[in-house]
User: Fold this.
Amino acid sequence: AQKVTQAQTEISVVEKEDVTLDCVYETRDTTYYLFWYKQPPSGELVFLIRRNSFDEQNEISGRYSWNFQKSTSSFNFTITASQVVDSAVYFCALSEALGNTPLVFGKGTRLSVIA
Amino acid sequence: DTGVSQDPRHKITKRGQNVTFRCDPISEHNRLYWYRQTLGQGPEFLTYFQNEAQLEKSRLLSDRFSAERPKGSFSTLEIQRTEQGDSAMYLCASSSKPIGTSGHNEQFFGPGTRLTVL
Assistant:
């Protein structure tokens, strides 16, 4: 069975600090996809990144970066120089590779960035 | 360009009543998903469609729940004889057809319908 664990329930940082959100996953599939979504106070889930299991390269997009390590089944998300607008709940999710199957989400990490 | 829309945004009902929610996906997307999210939890999969065909239903989807996508465009989710435990945010998402058999495109989510059962 697939499972996603986000051990950090809530994190609070001061603006401009860096913060890393942890994600550990379990799957028996050899091919799978990992995702991060942001859910701001408005409630709508916003897609951030998709990564397939064959691509272990780290990715950077502006202040966001992602570290995928198959050896530890982790897909961590780092925000550099955090801003108040980054305050949200962040979800890590997993799915099988075969054509857009449903996502299995973690419980989310609530990030509060204080000015 | 419009995203995924859901109607209504909020629904308050009394226990035992039936409710129906609607989801309009992004127009060219052939996959449509329903998830449920309770307070402090991540979204949990309920069911999904490819065009008008319902491909999978979660064990969470009791026989009081039914979903349809009659013309492969919008979808409805009906809950019969609502219970207080049905109170949650009901999220709809859609995705486009992947390239090849192993592709996986991101799902775009709507704003959700928040259901409160009194």
